[in-house]
Amino acid sequence: xxxxxxxxxxxxxxxxxxxxxxxxxxxxxxxxxxxxxxxxxxxxxxxxxxxxxxxxxxxxxxxxxxxxxxxxxxxxxxxxxxxxxxxxxxxxxxxxxxxxxxxxxxxxxxxxxxxxxxxxxxxxxxxxxxxxxxxxxxxxxxxxxxxxxxxxxxxxxxxxxxxxxxxxxxxxxxxxxxxxxxxxxxxxxxxxxxxxxxxxxxxxxxxxxxxxxxxxxxxxxxxxxxxxxxxxxxxxxxxxxxxxxxxxxxxxxxxxxxxxxxxxxxxxxxxxxxxxxxxxx
Amino acid sequence: xxxxxxxxxxxxxxxxxxxxxxxxxxxxxxxxxxxxxxxxxxxxxxxxxxxxxxxxxxxxxxxxxxxxxxxxxxxxxxxxxxxxxxxxxxxxxxxxxxxxxxxxxxxxxxxxxxxxxxxxxxxxxxxxxxxxxxxxxxxxxxxxxxxxxxxxxxxxxxxxxxxxxxxxxxxxxxxxxxxxxxxxxxxxxxxxxxxxxxxxxxxxxxxxxxxxxxxxxxxxxxxxxxxxxxxxxxxxxxxxxxxxxxxxxxxxxxxxxxxxxxxxxxxxxxxxxxxxxxxxxxxxxxxxxxxxxxxxxxxxxxxxxxxxxxxxxxxxxxxxxxxxxxxxxxxxxxxxxxxxxxxxxxxxxxxxxxxxxxxxxxxxxxxxxxxxxxxxxxxxxxxxxxxxxxxxxxxxxxxxxxxxxxxxxxxxxxxxxxxxxxxxxxxxxxxxxxxxxxxxxxxxxxxxxxxxxxxxxxxxxxxxxxxxxxxxxxxxxxxxxxxxxxxxxxxxxxxxxxxxxxxxxxxxx
Lengths: 281, 509
Description:
The structure holds two protein chains of two kinds.
Chain A: H1 2-12, E1 19-20, E2 23-24, H2 30-51, H3 63-69, H4 72-104, H5 111-119, H6 126-139, H7 145-170, H8 174-182, H9 187-198, H10 200-215, H11 219-224, H12 232-241, H13 246-271
Antiparallel strand pairs in A: 1-2
Helix pairs in contact in A: 2-13, 3-13, 4-7, 4-10, 6-7, 7-10, 8-9, 10-13, 12-13
Chain B: H1 2-9, E1 11-22, E2 25-36, E3 40-44, H2 51-59, E4 66-71, E5 74-75, E6 86-89, H3 101-111, E7 113-119, E8 125-129, H4 132-145, H5 161-173, E9 179-183, H6 191-208, E10 211-216, H7 219-225, E11 228-233, E12 236-241, H8 243-248, H9 253-258, E13 263-271, E14 274-277, E15 280-283, E16 293-299, E17 304-307, E18 313-322, E19 327-333, E20 336-342, E21 351-356, E22 361-365, E23 371-379, E24 382-385, E25 388-391, E26 403-408, E27 413-416, E28 424-433, E29 438-444, E30 449-454, E31 463-468, E32 474-477, H10 495-501
Parallel strand pairs in B: 3-10, 3-11, 6-9, 9-10
Antiparallel strand pairs in B: 1-2, 1-4, 4-5, 7-8, 11-12, 13-14, 13-16, 14-15, 16-22, 17-21, 18-19, 18-21, 19-20, 23-24, 23-26, 24-25, 26-32, 27-31, 28-29, 28-31, 29-30
Helix pairs in contact in B: 3-4, 3-5, 4-5
C-alpha cells in the first residue's frame, strides 16, 4: 500500500513545481557558477589579454602567435605531443576494453573488488605514482625515454579509460547480446556488430578523458623523459617560469586550447545521432 | 498424404530429464517434454517456476546441469545459440538501438549461410550468403506480414511498444527458424494491444507453420492461443495437455487453482464414483482410488447450480458481485465457502440450496498427505531436520546419529510471524484457499518444502518461522529403500498421460 501511494504521489507532481522551500532548483548551481567565473572564465580572459599584448610595452600585438607559427621545431614538438597522446589513448583503449568486458561478465563475481584495484591508484597523488613508475622502470632496466613516458602515461590515465568503458559495457542490455547470438552471430561477430557499436558513447568518453590531459601533460615527461620527449606542455611550462615569458606562454596555451576544443567538437560530431548519451562533453 | 501425416507426428524437440541448478537452487527439475512439429505449445506458470529457464535452455543461452535436448533427433544440449536453427522473441524485444528497422530485421539474414546445392572437390556442400536483393525482398515480405510495410527506414526508438514487438517477431521469423521461442512477448503491452497481438500471433502461427514455444504467466493467454499447454511450478511439469483438458481435468490442486476460477476442497473417496465432502456424498465420474482415500477435488464456479427450494447442500449467500454477464456469489455451506457464478442473483443473506452434477466434480490425487522429511537424531530428545533442531518425544530409544524419517501432519505445523520464534526460517511460496482453510507451502533455506493447513492467511514471499509441537512429530527409523526407491513426492505426469494427450484435438488444415 505504502509503496503504491508514494509512487502515485511522485507521478502526479507537476513539472513546474521544481522548487524546494521556495528556491528554484537551478539556484543550486549558483555556487559552482561563481566558482567557475572566478577560476575559469576570468583566468581565460587574463590569458587572452596576455596572449595579445606585448610583455615590455603592454600594447596590443599578434607577435606572440607569430612566434609559434614561425618556429617549425616548436610546431614539431606540438605534433609530437599529439602523437604521444594518441598513442597513449589507443593503448589505453586496447587494454581497457577487454578488461571492461571481462569485468562486466557475470562469471566474475568479485567485480567490485577488481574495479577497486584499478581505481585505487587514483587515490594516490599522480606525481607520487609517476616517481614510483620511474623506480619500477629503473628496476626493469627500461631506459628508453619514449617507452618510459608512454608506459607512465598509460598507467596514469588508464582508470579514466576503464571507468566509462566499464559503465557502458556493464550497463548494456544483456538481451541484446543474446539476440545477436540468437540471430546467428558468433561471439566475434557479436563483438563487432553489437557490443562495440553500442559501447561507442563510453569509448568516446574514455578517449576524450585520456587524450585531453595527455596532450598537455608536462609532469610525467618531466619525471620520466629526457630532452627527446620534451612536450608542448613542457614548453608552455618553461615560458611561464620565465618572468618575461607569460605573453608567449599564454599564446601557446591558447593555441593548444583551440586544438583540443576542435578535437572534442569533432568527437561529439562523430557520436551525434548515434546515441542520446553522447560523450561527456 | 502419408508424408504429411508422418511429419505431423514427429517430435521436433525432445527434452529428456533436463535439470538446471543455479547456485544450489533448482530452477528446472528433471523435466521431460516433447513438442511436435508445427505445434503451438505454451509453458505456463507463476514467475519463478522455471518456464523461462527451460526456454533459455532450448535457445542455448543456458546449459542444462543434466539431461539432454534433442532438436530433430540431434543432440543440441551443448550447441551454442548462434548455431541453432532456433530464434527467439525476447520479453523486452531486444531490438538493436543502433540499427534501423530494416537493418534489425536483416541482421540474421546477413549472417545466414545457405547451401548452393553444389559440392566442392571433397564432397562438402558449398554455402553462400544471401544477396542484397534477396535480403531486401525477404525483409519487405516479412514487414508486410507484420503490417509495417512503410517502416523499414525508421529508427527503433521512435516506435511504439506494439510496433517494436512486431519488428521483434519479424526479425525472428525472417530467418525461417525450425522453432520460434517467445518469452512473454506481450507482457509489456497494454490490454487492448495484447488482445490484438494474441490473435495476430495465432494467425501467424497458422500461416507460416513454424513450431511456436511460448512462455507466459497469463493463463487466459495460454488457453486461447495454444494447441498444448505445459503447466509448471517449482521447476517441474504439473500437467501437459490441450487447453480444454487442463481446464476440465486439472491434474492436481495447483493446476486447478492456477487455471481459471475454482473451488478446491478436500474430500474422501467412499468408493468408485462416490465422493464425500461438506458432510455430504456426491456422485462423480472418477474411479480408481482406494476406499476412503483423501483427495483434492475441484468444482468450477459455473458448475454449481443454485436453487431457493431444494438441492444437496444448504447454504447462505455472503456476498454477490455483478460481473457483466453473470453474478459471482460467495456462499457458505457447511464449513466451506464456495464461489458460485450464476446468471440469476441471490442477494446476500438469502438461504439457498446448492447442487453439483457428477461432471462438475473433478477428483485429483493429493500430492502429499503428510510432511515427510529425513533427519538425524542429535540428542536424547532432539532431531535435526532442514538444518534446525526440533524437539521430539523419544519413545523408541533412538540414539544420537540415528537416521530417521520424520512425519508431521499438515495441520500440526505452526507458522510464526517472526522467524526468530520458529526453529527454522522459511519462505511462503504458495497458498491455496481450500474453502475452510488455507493450504500454505513454504520452502526452507535448504530447499525442503512443508505443506501447512492453517486458518490464517499468509502472503506469498512472507518470511516465516516453523515450529512443531514435540508430540506431533512422528519419528520412525529410516527405511533406506522401499522396493528400490525412496519415498518422495509422487510424479504427477506419467508417460502414459503425455502419450494419450496427442491423440485428441488433432485437426487437419
